[in-house]
């Protein structure tokens, strides 16, 4: 809960409840989510996110502003295009809802602060990376390199030592996965790690620091093993990770999805895990 001074002689504080901030953050996040949908679809195809305007994926009908209101328009139209009446996938409003919840949660958790804005941007970029990699097996540079710049700017706003931590984290994130790529390619005679994954970890390192990088890789790999090993999730995997390679060609799971999971978990519970590890190792 934040307190702002009221413009009066007594200077009594004005209380802004975090619930109100969460509501405003959620509304703003829904708008961000609508734009994120455009980025997820267009950036992998190397298309502009400015022009042309949003269109129906089935009939190319140009969507008007009234039909492009986050969440509300999709519900009012019954999940169908106004022109061709063909279904518009629920993934679009789902991303808008997820982004709205991200921004609302950060506002609730951190109040009106730089930390809330930083966390909201970080999670939004992670969501964009996960969805782009799941759909296209590709992580656009706009997410990774753009996110890296944003992370360093937030770090710079926090002071020199914070910026140094971010730079070291970015370097470690890039370096570790680059070494995995080099070693894996040499051992298995095929690409072991995509360039997008490497740049993604540089971005994550700018937000999480080098310790967060290590934990992100561990948690991401663990999530990948668990999800890939459970046969009960085969149908879900086929929906989330649709086949994109020719018949007979070896398929790879989009590791960026799991790295995004690991980074999100590291942001939320990383400090607790590291604190537990220090206590555990100190007791041995």
What does this molecule look like?
With 284 residues, the chain is an all-alpha fold. The chain folds into two domains: 1-112, no CATH class; 138-284, no CATH class. Helices cover 67% and strands 3% of the residues. It has nine helices and two strands, in the order E-E-H-H-H-H-H-H-H-H-H. The chain has helices spanning 18-42, 72-76, 91-110, 114-136, 141-157, 160-188, 195-229, 234-240, 255-283; strands spanning 2-5, 13-16. Strands 1-2 form a two-stranded antiparallel ribbon. Residues 1-11 have low confidence and may be disordered.
Major beta-sheet overview: 2 strands, antiparallel
- The structure class reads mainly alpha
Rounded mean pLDDT score: 84
The tally of domains stands at 2
Order of helices and strands: EEHHHHHHHHH
Radius of gyration: 21 Å
Q: What is the 3D shape?
A: globular
Question: In order across it, which strands form the biggest sheet?
Answer: 1-2
Number of strands: 2
Unreliable spans: 1-11
SS field, number of helical segments: 9
Give the N-to-C terminal Cα separation. 41 Å
What portion of the residues fall into strands of 2 or more residues? under 5%
- Could you estimate the helical fraction of the residues in percent? 55-70%
Name its key features.
284 residues; mainly alpha; two-stranded antiparallel ribbon; 9 helices; disordered N terminus
